[in-house]
User: Fold this.
Amino acid sequence: MHFQGGKELTELTPSEVGDTIVTPAISAEKLVDHMKKFNELKSKLLDKEDVVSIQGKPFVRRSGWRKIALAFNISDGKVVALKASGMEEKQFKEFMNLLSWTIKKLANCPDQDFSILTRDLK
Assistant:
């Protein structure tokens, strides 16, 4: 069951050109079918080394996401890179521990769509 504004929705419909809110690109039935196929692909594609259990819940590791990206022909690359030079390794490590990092990566899809992924680290 899906609810919006306290009312039950009986059908999710694909988005129409000009809509101002985010809506599904395909019907709910097709989306459910695609998700079943995606989960089947994950179970066949990923090894036990590609999944880690955190507090009893399975999470896909970076290696698993790279396999999934390869299967769907999605590439990624760094948007911003920082290089420090002229420091000894020990000084560099101490310097790095003082910084908060924001890492941005660009993910390109075969249909020319892209996403910028942001991750904050300390």
Notes: The CA atoms of residues 100 and 122 lie 5 Å apart. The helical segments are 28-45, 62-71, 89-98.
